[in-house]
Amino acid sequence: MFFVLKMIVSAFVIAIVTEISRRLPTYGGIIAALPLVSLLSLFWLSIQGESETNMNQFTLGVLIGLPATGFLLLIVYFLTKHSVPFIVSLCAGMVAWAVFIYVQDLLNRMFT
């Protein structure tokens, strides 16, 4: 039952953001740039009684993923700005994200 509640609340937040984005794209983008998924995840983890260690590891994972996510968004932005179809732009962004994460992991292993 708790899982269903999490889904409903999370879906509601996403629905609100997409409605704002539809009407006011710039403000919707600013709101979407907020770490909504991360905050919701931390909230649910806290409610479920996860350990501080797990929550810290989750937060570190989010921080590690931020540069790759920024790169994904940059790719999508530039490709769509240059009239590349959205689905192609999105796929290219996701591939770039995966490559970025892979390279980041390799560099992390090399220097730690």
TrEMBL record:
Segments crossing the lipid bilayer: 25-46, 58-78, 84-103
Q: Which NCBIfam families match?
A: PRK09272.1-3 (NF006750)
What keywords would UniProt list here? Answer: Membrane, Transmembrane, Transmembrane helix
> What organism is recorded for this protein?
Halalkalibacterium halodurans (Bacillus halodurans)
Kindly give the Pfam families that the UniProt entry links to this protein: DUF3147
Q: What is this protein called?
A: DUF3147 family protein
